[in-house]
Amino acid sequence: MILAVEEVKTHLRIQHDEEDAYIEGLIRQAQGAAEDFCRSTFESEAPEPVRLAVLLMVSHYYENRDNPDRQVYLAMKTAFENLLYPHRDVDKMF
Question: CA distances (Å), 35 to each of 16, 25, 40, 64, in order?
Fold first, then answer.
C-alpha cells in the first residue's frame, strides 16, 4: 500500500484504533481506483500526486460515509482524476 493507516489517521485527526481495519480497506479501495484509472501498479514509492489522490479519496469516503451528496462526490472525483491524469499509462488505455 502506498499509504500507511497511521498516515491517514494523522490526516483525519483520528486518535483511536477501533477503525484501523476500516481505514485499511478504504486505502486498498482508493489505491485500486487509482491504479485502475492510471493502468499502473503503485508501490510504496508512488509519485506524490498519486499518494495525494489516494489520501483524498480515503478522506472523502471516511468523512462522507453517511452523506450521499453528489456534488461533493463529483468535486472529489474531479480532483482525484486531475492529480492522477499525468501518471496514466496511455499505452495500456486501449
Answer: 29, 15, 5, 22
